[in-house]
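Sequence in, structure out. Go.
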Amino acid sequence: MGENMNQIQFTESQTALTEEVKRLRRELADSEELAQVGLAVEILDHDLCGQFSAIWNALKALTPIVKEAPRACALVEGLKNDFSYMEQRFRWMLPLSAGKLSNTLNGKMISEYICAVLERPIEQVGITVEVTEAFQQLCMTGKSSVIFPVFLNLLTNAIQWLRNCEFKKVQLDFVDGIVTVCDTGPGIPDALLEQVFNRFYTTRGGRGIGLYLTRKNLERFKHSIWATNDGKYKSLPGACFCIRFNPMSLLDK
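Output:
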């Protein structure tokens, strides 16, 4: 009897190990995929830096040439404005490059950065972004390349969901050691609170990897993120995301 029990336990352990190996192989494949994306971004970053100066020089050279042609002059000025916006957006992306480290990050820095990067869509959609005093006082150590994209992704998602809402508001808060990002959109049903973090899950036609990558990147540094409908954290009627930063990264203000 004891021998049969040992055999059963051995078989169960072997099955569990096999499943764990499969899971780790899937994660490795995902990591290799993401590494390729990161490499492509680094190459693009290098190439664009060299092109910005050349484009600006060409636009400056065109300005006196088209001075006497009002229509052409207007087109050149329009190109300057559009390119200036594109270049600014690119510069704002630099803190997201892998390895970028800031000794300290605080809520004020995070909110100002996010609102600056998303300024145009926030204004176009007509969204109010409320940043509480508690959030502004949040202080921590960490990589901007890890922390900033979390909020960029959450606010970008909120902007999409709020487009057709009458009341458009996003709130960043810090409640009992938990960062909350809430909005006045349609919200997330209880049954989907965990599913929204699944890879390739989407209900609005996107790629469905934003929240998946957000969670994976946070977990690397022992931070965590989840969606909730708990009234303790949900200050607005729409979606509510909670972020618990690794206590070792938090600093006393």
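Check: Residues 101 and 147 are 10 Å apart (CA to CA). Helices lie at 2-65, 70-93, 107-117, 119-125, 133-136, 144-162, 210-220.
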